[in-house]
Fold these 3 entries.
Entry 1:
Amino acid sequence: MSIISKYNRFSYVYDLMEIPIEFLWYRKWRKKMFSGLSGRVLEVGIGTGKNIRYYPKSCEVVGMDISNKMLSYAKKRSRKNKKVSLFQMDAENLGFKDGRFDYVVTTFVLCSIPRPVIALEEMKRVCKPEGIVINLEHMKSEIGIIAFMENLFNPITTALTGVNINRETVENVKKAGLNIIDVKNVALWDVFRMIRSKP
């Protein structure tokens, strides 16, 4: 089953499935991540639009997602915000001109994109030279026992949801040619991390 089909299928229950982790962690992380942003922002994999409420009023937000069903929920969330534009497209082939955005952001997206390095190269391309790419993601731990468990269960999560829980995202950012500013551990030791980089 394709990624589009999987996320179209999960779109009806996606927000319900994430209620516990959203309440415990995600909403706090989203608020902190987006509070300092301004200018033109591209959100890659905007999904059902749960980040929309956290963008400052100074942001002009362009959101894209590969799933039309997920975008239908994001559209509902963006109705009161005229500074949000939504597009259906593939993260590996962004339909925007070079150097278009002040910020390019993802939250828990690079785990499900088939070719994450290509997607990151696209993020680099559409980000302004002085802009910043921010990726808040879960990824393969550098702690042996945790990495072992992630590798063990990854075939199951990939088959069921298309989500890879053992992506080496920091290395993928480097492979895409982005220059890392900093990497911060967010939760579960180093499973959840926030990476900031520049083109």
Note: The domain at 3-198 is CATH 3.40.50.150 (Rossmann fold).
Entry 2:
Amino acid sequence: MTYAHTNCIDCTPQRPARQFSLKHLALWAGLARQRRALANLTAAQRDDIGVTAQEAAQEAQRPIWDVPQQWRQ
């Protein structure tokens, strides 16, 4: 994307808004599904994976754009 400025002497082009692909949307949808499933685990299932009820609730309440660090590359 190019920007043309005719009335500006010392303008720096603005960076366009970040574009998200279908891949990003699919990852976010999958993450949302996983977080809903985590929220619906029974106490025995949480014990099996070593997660407390509080940890499960905190993770399930995170917004979909709050992704793991390794996804941000």
Note: The chain has three helices and no strands.
Entry 3:
Amino acid sequence: MRPDDWYCTQDLTGFLAHAGGFLRSRPDLHTVALTVTETLRTSGLRAYGDEAPVFGVLEVGGQVRAAYFRTPPFRLNVTPLTPDEAESLAAHLVALGHSVPGVIAAHETAEAFTAAWRRHTGGRGAVVQRQRLYRLGNLTVPQPVPAGRARIAGKEDREQLVLWYREFVDAVGDHAARDATGWADSRISYGGVTFWEGEDGTPLSMAGVTPVVAGQVRVAPVYTPAHLRGRGYAGAVTAQVSRAVLASGVREVLLFTDLANRTSNSLYQRIGYRPVADFTAYDFRGSRGF
């Protein structure tokens, strides 16, 4: 595998024309690439930051084998790679002079790329999160269902959504992928957040969904304020949005969890979500020349 088997572009339309079929061939493993590129397509290339995103494709013998993207200042996101492909990608990015602050990918790929990046730059990788991707099987509503009801968030809930999105980002200990107001406005535009509210109409928990792309939807984020946890609200609202997605005709319903959070992993499995693959996020430090 050679570094020049990869090509890099900032042309989203060209990237999707070239790699879109490949990404859609495994909408589960490629869910983040599909949803991020859809957001960039519909909301503009600055949806995730002021610096233009970068895309790349590995093509061998006329066949697309892998793809990557990065929306600065965030980590490199790459589809599953063999060790040789990870080595060639690291060499490709170094040759281009690209800064790579970290990587997130399927576990084996993240490890292989991190090792290759260290060989090429001297930069060391530190694990910052381990995730598990789940797919919904047979939906089961957790019992007992707490008092209250589900309601799709609207324009009148914008301030609440902005507040909870910021709290969610703080709770997971990572940087916000989008500005909170931009995220709220985008989700409101397509009914992308559902509240579980109390009988008096007070929002108690929320679950979001990404737009439908390639026949898949990802449930994200799920958030309950700390003082309201342990009462069944997250399970109720997650089951409700999952049911609504299925009722719309979508059959590929996905979500990610932090493997360190045993409560959420147990909850989603009780609802009917089944493991697909594990992912690992690394941050890089001390990369020579980067």
Note: The helical segments are 12-25, 31-43, 83-96, 107-121, 158-172, 180-189, 233-247, 262-271.
